[in-house]
Design brief:
Blueprint: H1 3-22, H2 29-57, E1 62-67, E2 70-74, H3 80-107, E3 112-117, E4 123-127, H4 139-150, E5 157-159, E6 179-181, H5 182-191, H6 195-206, H7 209-223, H8 247-257, H9 261-267, E7 271-276, E8 279-284, E9 295-303, E10 307-316, E11 319-328, H10 333-341
Antiparallel strand pairs: 1-2, 3-4, 3-11, 5-6, 7-8, 9-10, 10-11
Helix pairs in contact: 3-10, 4-6, 5-6, 6-7
């Protein structure tokens, strides 16, 4: 065999073995694992840069549910360290509040009560807050806010009907045919708790009180006040034994009402003047706690069935609180609220 033949044979053998080698798997198991790992890391890397600006640009709203119907909105892009510092500061204020109020809270006369932080919506103190109770005139908080949201012109004049007249208030009585603006009716309802004022408002907006009450109950349900069942606009319960709610629901309703500037202005007013048939009448708030500068409203209530009822909003010692007491002993509702706030 000559030299050229040997070279040809060697090349043929090499090509044969190269062909066999080429039939082996391209990557072994270890190599495949590395490739997949790098691929996943690459995908995660791209996802971070793709979704982060998308979230920021679309201003996605993050909500932390505290109570049904109540949520806390957290601004996108807030520095987490700063946020943590704020939470820590709030926690320390809450702990300090609880430590100084617990004994007073135990001593209150109210059958049902709740204290909610207005800013964080956290429940700080709770006594039978889910128990079904008579709300008396605290009902008018919901009547008023539904009215405000459905009145096209707050200065429109209303003519008092026969059903909205008569002695149904501890103050002055409306007479059939009396003329008064919707704004003054709201003031009468929220400041002096006039029972016929809410009836007149309801008839003007919905045609009848019962039609308006349906709006009230729908609103309560929408807010998350699922244990609220109202049968009239003013809270009188003699003919409506099923007219009930809970302290927790009233806190939810109050929280919503206080976001409305007109409502907040009226319930924080100590004295005002309303006009009926061009005659001015001075009125004074039934909420005596407004004499304390840190109490900012909102509504009193009393019937024989309900006992003393009071929903209060306070700004005191670094905390903004909504406090509710139901069925306090006679003349003890204010004292019960002060035990929850003042120190």
């Amino acid at each position: 065999m000559n030299l050229n033949s040997r070279k040809w044979k060697a090349r043929t053998i090499n090509n044969h073995f190269n062909l066999i080698e080429s039939k082996k798997p391209f990557l072994n198991k270890t190599s495949w694992f590395k490739v997949l790992s790098y691929l996943l890391l690459f995908i995660l890397f791209l996802s971070f840069f793709f979704f982060k600006p998308l979230i920021r640009d679309n201003n996605i709203e993050i909500r932390a549910e505290i109570e049904p119907g109540i949520s806390v909105e957290i601004e996108p892009g807030i520095d987490t360290e700063t946020d943590h510092e704020i939470d820590t500061a709030i926690d320390s204020e809450v702990d300090a509040y609880r430590s100084t109020r617990m004994q007073d809270f135990i001593d209150i006369t109210a059958e049902s009560a709740i204290v909610m932080d207005y800013d964080t919506k956290r429940i700080l103190l709770d006594k039978n807050s889910d128990r079904m109770m008579y709300p008396a005139s605290t009902t008018k908080m919901l009547s008023a806010i539904v009215a405000i949201e459905n009145i096209p012109d707050i200065n429109e004049t209303v003519t008092i009907s026969e059903s909205a007249s008569g002695k149904n208030s501890s103050f002055f009585s409306f007479k059939t045919g009396d003329e008064i603006t919707l704004l003054d009716l709201l003031k009468a309802a929220l400041i002096i708790s006039h029972n016929n004022a809410t009836i007149a408002i309801a008839e003007y907006i919905s045609g009848s009180e019962q039609e308006f009450v349906e709006l009230m109950n729908k609103k309560a349900n929408k807010l998350g006040a699922y244990n609220t069942f109202f049968f009239n606009t003013n809270g009188l319960d003699t003919d409506y034994p099923e007219h009930k709610t809970t302290a927790k629901d009233l806190a939810i309703i109050a929280d919503y009402c206080l976001k409305n500037d007109l409502f907040k202005q009226i319930v924080s007013t100590i004295e005002d003047t309303i006009t009926i048939n061009n005659e001015k009448i001075e009125i004074k708030n039934t909420n005596n706690l407004l004499n304390y500068n840190y109490i900012k409203g909102i509504k009193t209530g009393f019937t024989e069935n309900a006992g003393g009822c009071l929903v209060a909003y306070s700004e005191h010692n670094g905390l903004n609180l909504i406090s509710v007491v139901l069925n306090s002993k006679k003349r003890s509702r204010e004292a019960d609220i002060l035990k929850l706030i003042k120190k």
